[in-house]
User: Fold Damage-inducible protein DinB from Asanoa iriomotensis.
Amino acid sequence: MVTDVREPRHDLTDPKILLLDFLDYYRVVVGRKVVGLAPAELGRSRLPSGWTPLQLLKHLVYMEERWVRWGFAAEPVPHPWGDQDEEGRWQVGPDETVDALLAAMDLAGARTREIASRAQLADRAAAGGRFTTEGDCPTLGWILTHVLQEYARHAGHLDVARELIDGQTGE
Assistant:
C-alpha cells in the first residue's frame, strides 16, 4: 500500500487528473484508517448500523470494480456484488484479511487508472456489463465522480470508527 500520497497539487486544472489523483489520495486515507487495527477491531462494529472496518474496506474494493471495470469498461467481473450477502449487507469471509483487501484496493486503483487512460471523461460506459442498454450508460466523468464521493464518504465513516476504537483522528 502506498502511504505517502497527499492531496493533488493545487494548481492542477485537468479534471481527469484531479479525479484520479483524489481517488489515489482517498485510497491512502482509507488504508491509513485500517492499518494497525487489531484483527478483533477490524471485525467489530462500533456503530448501530453494524458495519465493521473490514466490511467497509471490502465494500470499497467491490464498489470500484462494479463502477469502473464492470460498469464503464463492461469487463466480466466474477462476483460484482461479492461484498454483500443476500440481504445486501456488507460481509467478509473468515479467510479475508486487511492486507489482502488493501492489495485488492491498490489493484482496483491501478485498473481504474489504466481504463481511464484510454478514455475521455465524456465517453459513455460500454453496454453489456453493468449497464445493459446504451441509454443507461453514464459517462466516465460521472462514474469517477461517483467513485470518488464513495471513497470520501466512507473515509469519513472510518474517521468516526477509528476515533471510537482508539481515539486516532486525522488522515
About this structure: The radius of gyration is 16 Å.
